[in-house]
Amino acid sequence: MSEITLTAGATAVVVVDMQNDTVHPKGAFAETGAAEHAIAQNVIPNVGQILDAARAASVSVIHNRIVVYPNPAVGGANAPIFRMLGPESFAVGSWGAAIVDELAPQGDELVLDRTRMSAFHGTALDVILRNLGVTDVVVVGAWTNMAVEHTVRDAADYGFAVTIVSDATSSLSSEWQNAAIGFALTNIATIADTQSVVAALTA
User: Which CATH number fits the domain that encloses residue 95?
Assistant: First the structure.
């Protein structure tokens, strides 16, 4: 893990898909191992620690959710991941699509919805971050090897310095987690743990 330095006025925390259907034991994908891995990662409390530190330091927090609209064609079926979604999962306005209670947005924190994998795709996230003067993005959330990885890669391509938090992310299993954290993203982002990110945010 890396020691990191973050400047409050130039940093944002992007929270990806911390929704009931991704991490809750009663969520639509709990039986895939997603809820079990979220618990093993302590992902909800760890994301909570980072949000607490960010809020205390007046660091911008932006939440992002994947949603499924009533017309399934809106989300597309061009890849297996999109065929996994809906109509029983992530339905817009449903409990499953909602952010878990423990991590509910506060104050003026934005919630951006999308139908693709990356938090940048189909949202104004890039423009919002630039308008806020952000140069460094801390990414937390689920699932690490899917939406989180897509978001991290896009953030790097858009020119942001990216930190992914190893224990404030979770996937369907430890194998999928390691595929992203241990291999796929090692040359894309700084990999740090919750303790290091909290320390950097509060420094």
Answer: 3.40.50.850
Residue of 1, 18, 16 whose CA lies nearest to 148: 16
Distance CA 15, CA 191 (A): 16
Of residues 25 and 79, the one with the higher pLDDT is 25
For the chain, give the number of residues: 203
One-letter amino acid at 64 equals N
Alpha-carbon 123 to chain mean position: 14
Q: Which range marks the domain in which residue 153 is found?
A: 8-202
Looking at the structure of the chain, the number of domains it has is 1
The pLDDT value given to residue 86? 78
In Å, how far are 17, 103, 128 from 111, measured between CA atoms? 10, 12, 12
The tally of CA atoms less than 13 A away on the side-chain side of residue 23 is: 29
Whether residue 28 is contained in a domain is answered as: yes
CB count in 10 Å sphere of residue 47:
29
Mention every residue, 6+ apart, whose C-beta is less than 8 A from residue 21.
Answer: 27, 28, 29, 89, 90, 96, 97
Tokens of 156: 């790097």
pLDDT, tens digit (0-9, with 9 covering 90-100), for 36-55: 999 999 999 999 999 999 99
Residue 33 and residue 60: Cα distance in Å, rounded? 31
What pLDDT, in 10s, does the model give residues 145-202?
Answer: 999 999 999 999 999 999 999 999 999 999 999 999 999 999 999 999 999 999 999 9
